[in-house]
Amino acid sequence: MALDGQGPAGSPTRVTVADIARDAGVSIATVSKVLNRRPDVAAETRARVNALLAERGYVPSTRTRNKARADRPARGGLVDLVFNDPGSPWATEVIRGAEVAARAVRASVVVSALDPAPRARRRWLDDLAERGSLGLVLAVSSLSPDEQAAVRRLGLPVVLMDPVGDFESTLPAMGSGNFGGGLAATQHLLDLGHRRVATITGPMRYLSSQARLAGYRAALERAGLPVVPELVREGDFHHASARAASEVLLSLADPPTAVFAANDEQALGVYATAQARGLRVPEDLSVVGFDDVPMSQWVLPPLTTVQQPIRELAAIATRSLLGPAEGEGLPLRGRVELPTTLVVRGSTAPARAAGT
């Protein structure tokens, strides 16, 4: 293996990154991250590697220093984070994750809300060209074919988070296991004995909404239960739409005993409808959300929900735009999907026996 470091002055031997990695019990990539002061290394591991570097007198060779300098991501640059709705709790978590990743390399995040007005969107494209962005993270947002072509002409890399609409299949996309999350949420309610399980989806033009609904359907089918059309209502990921949808559901002659809402904000809309009708959560109605944004822990009762790693996804998407050192190991194409986890709190309970 090539020698990539040297010992103290006058030392007859040179210390390599491979030597440090072997003695620390970590990978060469981990030692490289410590040397480049990357944030994604556990504190204990970082301390162990730094102690060995000091003890062995490791000094990077000129070649290694030059390579690290060439690979280092741009400093002080901008990454554009683009939403249809940057004011949602989900978007807040995306912004936090992106800012942490950008701050690690002294870059900044510019948050844009896509205005539906054509003139405003043209102005946004002009601003994008003028500020010299390093790239775009399109977070649950959509661009027309002409707008996509304009971004390509600027030579800007694009990463998608839960894409909306049609984009080039070659663009990298980040997302969570939406199908598995919908399946787990619905299965949890079925395991509690609920048989009239409703769902309030997100907008069905969103791929994430389609996948969560598919998970709901799959859980019912596995249980040998039909998918009842009147128990499936489309929302728009906002509180008001869930209020309206849950009013319809709870007005049915045979109302549901449980509702799976496709995000936490909609789940809280179900809470509000239940309270207005004198129903108790979870005694009279079990509710499951999706996202696990911070407010899901603060409401009463705390919301059972599907946790998706929103901040981590945003950080991965942002790092992939900040140069080889920050995007190390990420695919340039395809979809990066992180798993979801069901978090059981106080909003779900066993179904009540008939007549009780």
From TrEMBL:
Keywords from UniProt, A to Z, are: DNA-binding, Transcription, Transcription regulation
Q: Does the keyword Transcription apply?
A: yes
Record domain HTH lacI-type: where: 15-69
| PROSITE patterns hit by this protein | HTH_LACI_1 (PS00356), HTH_LACI_2 (PS50932)
Which SMART domains does the entry link to? Answer: HTH_LACI
UniProt GO molecular function: DNA-binding transcription factor activity; transcription cis-regulatory region binding
Pfam families for this protein? LacI (PF00356), Peripla_BP_3 (PF13377)
Q: Which PANTHER family match?
A: LACI-RELATED TRANSCRIPTIONAL REPRESSOR, LACTOSE OPERON REPRESSOR
Q: What is this protein called?
A: Transcriptional regulator, LacI family
Give the source lineage, highest ranks first.
Bacteria, Bacillati, Actinomycetota, Actinomycetes, Propionibacteriales
